[in-house]
Amino acid sequence: MKINGIKGGFLALTAALLLSLAACHSVNRLANDREIAILAVNDIHANIDLFPRFAALVDSLRSVHPDLLVFSAGDNRTGNPLNDMYNPTNYPVIDMMNKVGFDMTAVGNHEWDANIEALQQNIADAEFPFLCANVIIPDSIKLDISPYKVINKQGIKIAVVGLLQLGSSGFPSVYRANVSRVGFVKGSDVVPDYKYLRDENDLFILLSHEGFEEDLRLADSFPFVDAIIGGHSHTLVEHPEAHNGVLVTQSGSKLNYTTLHTFKFRAGKLVDKKAVVLNVKGFRKENAEMRDLVDHYSRNERLDVVLANATTSFNTREEIGCMVTDAIREGAGADFGFHNTGGIRVNHLDKGPITVKDVYSIDPFNNMVVVYTMTGAQLKRFIMQSYKQNGKRASFVSGMCYKIVTDDDGYPKSVMITPENGTFSDEAEYKVAMNEYMATSIKFNSVDDGTSLYKTTEEMTMDYLRNMKNIDYQNVKRTE
Amino acid sequence: MKVFVNDVEINIFEGARVIDATHNFINRFELFEKLRRLSAHDAWNNRLDLDGELQEGSRIYLD
């Protein structure tokens, strides 16, 4: 059989490794060595479809390593409406992680994607701890996040400290309102506080949702750490190695891969550490119980939940686009909202109930909303450039009507703007919200670099519809 | 925030992902044919998923 590329290579490696591990394990027993095995994933992002294979792989490894530990480096949720829209949100992933037997997870930025109460519900439902050492939780909030966890396996004490990434704003990459009641400090500032754990235990690990580049900086700064098991940047470290003596790993994302770490002890001393990447997607066996669970959760009635009632039908794509841009503008608290025409995938909606499933059909791209400050003149150029790059189609808008004036060849010469409220001037500054696709695909200038609100256009549309209850967009037209 | 694509500095919104920086770079240099065969890696030649999140100063490379 010809094995092509990394996929086949990992598949072969996975099978060979499982066989060789069995042999090594018996030798270890004879030598009375201790070997701690930790299987780690990160950024599962609710890809429940691969849980049956992952569970089968864990089953196989447990036949070799009965004391196998299973860690997640965070971002277990977000990315699959079957999971994220479940009530309670994210319960399917928590349930599957419980059944696999996860021992702990780091708190990733996306763990905060619902709200603090929803996160606490996840923590309460989980049969494993959530770790984060650089979050400050006021006494007024119930949030059972631990900074670290110590586990004893075969007489070896393993201390694990959780870390969470922060952006330059000092907050994790998440919708700001969701974390407004808690505080954060830089991960690198708190690691020295836990050095005593290194002295008191046999193995010291950072379970880091900081991203690979930051993990390397942590390795440079803190050589007393034995390993950094990472997430956040979705980096597949295909050949894990030590940096400054610290083993640094990460397994891509969405359960496609997992990393098996082995730490060998002789007379209580760590004498060897290594890690190997295993291909979950390419693993042929499935755990039947987990397959049943996936099938069960795939029948999620939450997708049929009615968000609002359309009192008239939507008969054009622009009518639907106007509804979505209104949601973006309102959700972002912006003066104007934009969405590219190609990003709206439905041309007609019947009068009557609009469901969660409808919203995902209208706008299936999981684009974040990004907000910029622009002058009126910059905004005009943005609208014209978007028209030019968008196949001479006017992007959908909220907060104004606009008319593109073109030359004989159809290229935009100018744009006439009629704001919904007040007046419009070239010199004034406006808050402009748009989907991520427009933010990166259109050439434009702005006063600032922009900020993601870490909330998707679908989420804002659903919030908007829930608030509106009844909507009527028939014959709404804002662009010419 | 500033990130680097193929060692070219790009200003992009905070919270951008690998795919955003890639789109920005492709758009800026009009390398549209690249869109069909995108793959990104970091300075250590580790493969990056396109929805991986970037931080200030992140460096990515497109093949």
What does this structure look like?
The complex is a heterodimer of chains A (480) and B (63). Chain A has 480 residues and is of the alpha/beta class. Chain A has 2 domains: 2-297, Metallo-dependent phosphatases (Purple Acid Phosphatase, chain A, domain 2), CATH 3.60.21.10; 301-471, 5'-nucleotidase,  domain 2, CATH 3.90.780. Helices cover 31% and strands 28% of the residues of chain A. Chain A is built from 14 helices and 26 strands. Chain A has helices at 5-31, 51-64, 81-84, 91-100, 116-125, 187-190, 195-200, 212-221, 288-298, 317-332, 356-362, 376-389, 436-441, 457-468; strands at residues 34-41, 69-72, 104-106, 130-131, 135-136, 145-146, 148-153, 156-164, 183-184, 203-209, 227-230, 235-236, 241-243, 246-250, 257-266, 269-279, 306-310, 336-339, 352-355, 368-375, 396-398, 400-406, 412-419, 429-435, 451-456, 470-471. In chain A, the strands form 6 sheets. In chain A, strands 6-4-3-2-1-15-16 form a 7-stranded mixed β-sheet, with helices on one face. In chain A, helix 5 links the parallel strand 3 (104-106) and strand 4. In chain A, helix 1 runs parallel beside helix 2 and helix 10 crosses helix 14 (457-468). Residues 1-9 of chain A have low confidence and may be disordered. Chain B has one helix spanning 18-29; strands at 2-5, 8-11, 40-41, 47-48, 59-62. Chain B has one domain (2-62). With 63 residues, chain B is α+β, with helices and mostly antiparallel strands. In chain B, strand 1 (2-5) and strand 2 form a beta hairpin. At the A-B interface, helix 8, strand 12, strand 20, helix 13 and strand 25 of A face helix 1 and strand 4 of B. Strand 12 of chain A pairs antiparallel with strand 4 of chain B, so a sheet runs across the interface.
